[in-house]
Amino acid sequence: MSFQSQALSEIKAEFPKYKDAHRSIGAFNYMKGIAPFLGIDAPTRRKILKKIFLDLPEPTSDQLGKTALALMKLQQREYHYAAYDLIEFFIEYADETFLDKYAEKLITTTPWWDTVDGLGTAMISPLTILYPNKKLIEKWNRSENIWLIRSSIQHQRGRRKQTNVPYVLELCQRHAQSKEFFIVKAIGWALRDISRFNKHAVREFLKSNPDLGTVAVREANKYL
After folding, report:
1. 194 CB contacts (<8 Å, ≥6 apart)?
2. pTM metric for this prediction
3. Which of 36, 171, 188, 211 could cross-link to 216 by cystine, CB 3.0-4.6 Å?
4. For 33-77, how does the pLDDT look when each residue is reduced to its tens digit (9 = 90+)?
């Protein structure tokens, strides 16, 4: 049995055993109806997946990408979360072609902040450390897709002092006049992260952008 078929068959067999109708309704409403839910809480989902992942064979980079995409195409939202959980668990097998081949498709399949940010943490930030891909980040940042723009702005989340501050601020600056909530929020989070170790840079950005969205300003000021 291939990596993909084994992963999909085991996840699809296990997840329905833990469905919770009451929780699924609450999650569906909270996520604005982006997709139906089985109603599995995050700790339970991760526990189920860890057991499955430990028994899977080592994947190739393409097997990992194709399996994640297959999970993203299933109906219930927990399978979409499993896609980025899978990538995070097997991240060492993703090669320098992974982002170019799979990232955009993963981000834009039933996109909402939950999967976009999950993929950012599990896939984009770690892989752009290993395999810097400025061309792809630039493409996303200059696109018309709000989720690709959000992903580009947040692509260095969690790096702290390893963050390329001038470049992240450049990505933010291009969208400083945006009124799109999810882009403004991403700018705020990027500024908030930078403010932990470079308050001066954030203060200067805010000073240069007096019309920056309120949500971004609030996030940026959190640690100032």
Report:
1. 163, 165, 168, 169, 201, 202
2. 0.94
3. 188
4. 999 999 999 999 999 999 999 999 999 999 999 999 999 999 999
What sign results for the dihedral spanned by CA atoms 119, 122, 123, 129? Answer: positive
Phi-psi map region of 109: left, alpha, beta (phi>0 left; psi -120 to 50 alpha):
beta
pLDDT of residue 1: 80
* Cα Rg, the chain, nearest whole Å: 18
Helix spans in the chain (H) = 3-14, 21-30, 42-54, 61-72, 77-89, 98, 104-108, 113-119, 125-130, 134-141, 146-153, 165-173, 181-195, 199-208, 214-220
Nearest to 66 by CA among 90, 42, 37, 48: 90
Distance of CA 126 to the CA centre of its chain: 11
